[in-house]
Amino acid sequence: MSAALRPAALLLVLAAPARASAARIDELTETRLFQQAVEFLTLADPVVRTALAGSLLLGVCCGLLGSFMVVRRLSLAGDAIAHAVLPGIVLGFFWTLTKNPLALFIGAVLAGLAGAFVLGLIRDSTHLKEDTALGLVLSGFYAVGIVGLTMLQNHPLSGQSGLETFLFGQAAALSPDDVRLMAVVTGLSLLIVLLLYKELLASSFDPGFSRCLGLPVKLLHHLVMVLLTFAVVVSLQAVGAVLVAAMIITPAATAYLLTDRFHRMIFYSCLLGAASGGLGVFLSYLGNRLPTGPFIVLAASCFFGLAFTFAPRHGLLHRTYRLRTRRTTIALENALKTVYRIREDKGFSEEGVPVGELQARLGEPDAVFTKLLRALTARQWATWAPGDTHVFLTPAGWLRACAVVRNHRLWELYLTHAADYPPDHVHDDAEVIEHILGEDTVRQLERRLDFPDTDPHGRLIPSLGDLQQSLGVHPARPRAEGYDMPR
Amino acid sequence: MTTRPPANEPPPLEIHDLTVSYDRRPVLYGVDLEIPRGQLVGIIGPNGAGKSTLIKAVMGILPVSGGWVRIFGRPAARELRRVGYMPQRESVDWDFPVSVLDVVLMGRYGRLGWLRRPSRADRDAARSALDRVRMLPYAERQIGNLSGGQQQRVFLARALAQESDLYFMDEPFAGVDAVTEAAIIEILHELRSAGKTLLVVHHDLPTARKYFDMLVLLNMRVIAVGPTEQVFTYPLLQKTYGGRLTILSEVADAVGTSS
């Protein structure tokens, strides 16, 4: 064989087994995935144990302090600190030339404090605003950090320093010492929040009032910021500087959507942080040690997405549902009002209203109109069955109709009398307000208008007292006591 | 509840030559004030006169660049426990995840001290304060689900829960309806009758002469202090409000209707 052919043959030999394995690659990754999942879940590997413990701890710690950041509107401070500490990591490494957790920690905290100092300096001595100062510090310090890291990477002494984990995060790179430090920081933060809960709550909610209570508001603020810096620094290796802010913001924001009580928000936030941490490490382990940070943040963001969609009060679905029910109620109330108007035009002589006339007045197509009648019947505001020629309102439905008409006419009267609107300008406004006027407001309006009988167009304003009497629900009551508004 | 003050008790509030600046630009200067016990005092002045600044500076919320403040004869910072405060409604975020009762309970924190949690007695005090402003049915609501007047009443309840001797209130009637305003002024009168001293920032001139025993006319410095009938005069109000025409005509109306 000639010398020229030899390399080609070598390539062929090398390629052959590769092709053979390529055929089975799907199967292979599947079993490997399963094996890895089992390996992870049995926690046999000490590396897995360390990584998992670290991520759970960082989740709790970031979730805890993140709650304070979110309610204090300081969410971006976490981001600024995360970027600002990077030069400190490099500095800490130069100091010992190893990844000594304590040295890195001290360096990072010093850099974080320097960042906060520069931030304050820019804000107080120029007329630049907080957000700009934040952006300046964040990017400036980060640039210094990246330059430092790159220099370190090329430094002969650093060798396999693994410092790039500080950018994107690698939980598997955590040493037991790192996790111990995280445990200390998390424990300390939990203890402080537990002991000073009421002081921290008051000074977060209303700093001015807390000063009056004699609380050292500035000191408490600095305390939270120092704890936050600690949390960011210990989380840096697992989540990475780029994304650690997400761990401060996302679990806390999710918890904010789930509850209206601060103590519960803190609890949920810690729980969500830990869950995101655990899930993120698991996924990154399955992906054969892909960077952990993105996976943790991905998990946290998924939780947020779920809460955003399904949360009981603030969730998207609930809001849409509420809006729809409100729209339905408005449509039903408008139908009731129309029934009232038809009966009014006939001098209230007939109890039932012809279906055709009602539909003509409402101007709805058949399908919508039938649905409307069904809904009225379902709410027990009317009695109607397919084939009926007339619609009859139940006592409850009639009261409701009167209430809506009264609200409408009271409001028109209020606008023309008290607000000096011309009478032909008030109808549209009243169309909206009639559905949302509360009982208190109605009573105030009546008092203010001196219990009026007729609206600006000269029509009677129904008095519920009279109607209740006519329905035999209640004995007549003097009007000055106000009406019972059906809900 | 009305305890007679010791004859020699120092005045609840004494301010001497108080100067406050923002960015080295003075907003209040040379303020001298002495408020006797059991008075309902209105602080009146145009926008930007430093009314809120004055009470914030007294409580140490804003830094002071000169002068001193004594509360019951002692430096203000040492006697804050005897001071109750009702800030403006806009000073807080009403989306904050706390209940109405939580907020009123904060009024008790000052007397609790560090590390101690509110006791049953504190909760009862908070509840009765809420009851007094007729907000007890809303105790468990998140504070954002309230109307403006209700939020104002929650802040009043929190100040009541402080059970202080000297109160500062920043525009307690801002944005409330007439019914709430009447309810609030009634409570202020009750507090005054119980021997408390109240300083209230107020901007509505016609009601000012009805509501308050004493007035402080303020426009960057104290224009006049004294019993309402002596201070609420056209020349003094004109001096306070300068040449602002609309307000002056309002003043003329207010002074005119009274005589």
The low-pLDDT segments of chain B are none
Question: Count of helices of chain B?
Answer: 9
Overall helicity of chain B: 25-40%
Measured by residues with Cβ under 8 Å of the partner chain's Cβ, the largest interface is: A-B, 27 and 32 residues
In CATH terms, the superfamily of chain B is P-loop containing nucleotide triphosphate hydrolases
Name the structural class of chain B: alpha/beta
Q: How many domains make up the 3D coordinates of chain A?
A: 2
Number of strands of chain A: 3
Give me the CATH architecture of the largest domain in chain A, please: Orthogonal Bundle
**By CATH's scheme, which homologous superfamily of the largest domain in chain A applies?**
ABC transporter involved in vitamin B12 uptake, BtuC
Average the pLDDT over all residues of chain B and give the rounded result.
Answer: 85
Shape field of chain A: elongated
For the termini of chain A, the CA-CA separation is 98 Å
| CA-based gyration radius of chain A | 34 Å
